Amino acid sequence: MVNSERILNEFLELVQVDSVSGKERGVADLLKRKLSEIGLEVSEDNAGREVGSDTGNIIGKLPGKSGGPVLMLSAHMDTVEPGSGIQPLIDGELVRSSGDTVLGADDKAGIAAILEVLRLVGEQNIEHGGLEVVFTIWEEGGLFGSKNLDYSQLSATAGFVLDSDGPPGTIVTRAPWQDHIGATVTGRSAHAGINPEQGINAIMVASQAIAGMKVGRIDEETTSNIGIISGGKATNIVPDSVTIQGEARSLVHAKLTAQTSHMCETLQKTAGKFGAKAKIMVDRQYDGFNLDERALPVRLALSAAKNLGLTARLKNTGGGSDANIYNSKGIPAVVLGIGMSKVHTTEEFISLADLSGNARYLLEIVRATRTGDILP
Predict the structure, then answer these.
(1) Which sequence positions are flagged as catalytic?
(2) For residue 140, what are the β-bridge partners?
(3) In sequence order, what are the residues at sequence separation of 6 or more whose Cβ sits closer than 8 angstroms to the Cβ of residue 309?
(4) What is the per-residue pLDDT across 335-360, written as a single tens digit (0 to 9) for each?
(5) What is the CA radius of gyration of the chain?
(6) Between 78 and which of 21, 227, 244, 370 could a Cys-Cys bridge form, CB atoms 3.0 to 4.6 Å apart?
(7) Reduced to 3 states, what is the DSSP secondary structure of residue 342?
(8) Closest CA to 188 of 198, 197, 200
(9) Which residues are 175's β-sheet partners?
């Protein structure tokens, strides 16, 4: 049923349109035209203005012909760097980049699957309760598009975000909460060669604090990291200020609270020990979600996998996605594996089979909304 040649050509077209985070205008305009030609009502929200992108989120609506649930199909338009001038290469049964950039299967393979399904729904006159398509901006590095999406335009009761590794049949039902932890440690400057004892070395204080933290894999559900340290002016000056930035994540909210508190308390206690001060700011990046098999999107995804003879795999993830935001906004959503591999590297690739398989699986999810086709 899936037009494999069409979806491949569309994927190749999409990845060659530059759309690094914050600069999605070109691909957004292309997608608005494509959605309109398929027959969707298309709009663009004001998220770009809020976050500094040159475009907003693209929303498309296709009214339903049955009384089934309204589904949201979502993927993000942006890519990471190096993502300009992508030249895709077909290498046997795989599509790769030329080696100087990412490929952009993350997440244009998801976009290509959604477009193919929308065309097939029309061509095959497939009944559904309504489809709402959301192509977000600036997902990479902050989920800024979904955080600023105009949710007043949506009525979906189940969402599917095509943005995970793993083959079709992979269903991400659980994802973490994440806190960003930023701190400025303030000490006292002095000449490093003449009177260092009169100074309080902020970098040393921060280093001692970090050394006293639990960092890395805390347990099977929790991680933490210190990723950025900056400070100091010269080697002959005892540094009076340093900033550090880190994060904590957990699939269990209470564990995240404990880990974040541990990191902040360690900073404060260490600063106090050396006579320094620590100003700490904690920012919740997103809330986690945990959907069981009774949730509508999970039931639909499992039903579709069964109908196609796919091996369904429910999994957790340690990363965030637009699905975290959708769930927090009251739209139950899972993330589907789309076969992308080695993402965020110049070795990124996807198989021709998965490009077609993604559309086939998503189409069966739409079909499963028919009465009696959803697993209880």
Answers:
(1) 78, 139
(2) none
(3) none
(4) 999 999 999 999 999 999 999 999 99
(5) 24
(6) 21
(7) coil
(8) 200
(9) 289
